[in-house]
Amino acid sequence: MRTKAAAAQFLASRRIAVTGVSRTARGHGSNVVYQRLRDRGYQVFAINPRAATVEGDRCYPDLAAVPGGVDAVVIGTRPEAADATVRECAQLGIRQVWMHRSLDAGSVSPTAVEYARDHGMTVIDGGCPLMYDPAADPGHKLMRCVLSCTGRIPRTV
């Protein structure tokens, strides 16, 4: 599947969890994703086992703690934490996963990508949901173009 189609499918989900949100939001990537999705009308859930609230909203220690569950997950943690997150997704039946990555290594874990795909999940292993409509802004669209051209965003998932 082409990444653009996978992104559209992911963003068609209305209940999205974002892992790796921080209590200190200043420019933190997960917090930016969390805020933008919330502002765009998504039901978005902050996941951080060491925080009770984030961005003025309740924060959950893990995906299983979210009442009613979620349809999709943005992983915004260090790559080594992505493995545990995709295993939890598999246990909970969550089939849409996005491993956030911009200019650095981001949250992409090759072992987590392999595990998720082996368990029937659609995994976008790079880029950011904010680079795609309806969550995109002009800056993120430009970043998408640059990162796509440099291979930092996969063309297919």
Automatic annotation (TrEMBL):
SMART domains: CoA_binding
SUPFAM superfamilies noted in UniProt: NAD(P)-binding Rossmann-fold domains
Gene3D superfamilies linked to this entry: NAD(P)-binding Rossmann-like Domain
InterPro entries in the cross-refs: CoA-bd, NAD(P)-bd_dom_sf
Domain CoA-binding: 10-104
Pfam family for this entry, one: CoA_binding_2
PANTHER family the UniProt entry points to: COA-BINDING DOMAIN-CONTAINING PROTEIN, CYTOPLASMIC PROTEIN-RELATED
Protein name: CoA-binding protein
